[in-house]
Amino acid sequence: NDGSIAFRYEKVNPVFMVESNVRPGRDLAPIVETRLGKIGGAICFDFDFPAFIRRASDSATLMLQPGWDWGPIGTLHAKMDATRALENGFTLFRCSSGGVSGV
Question: For the whole prediction, is pTM greater than 0.85?
Answer without folding.
Answer: yes
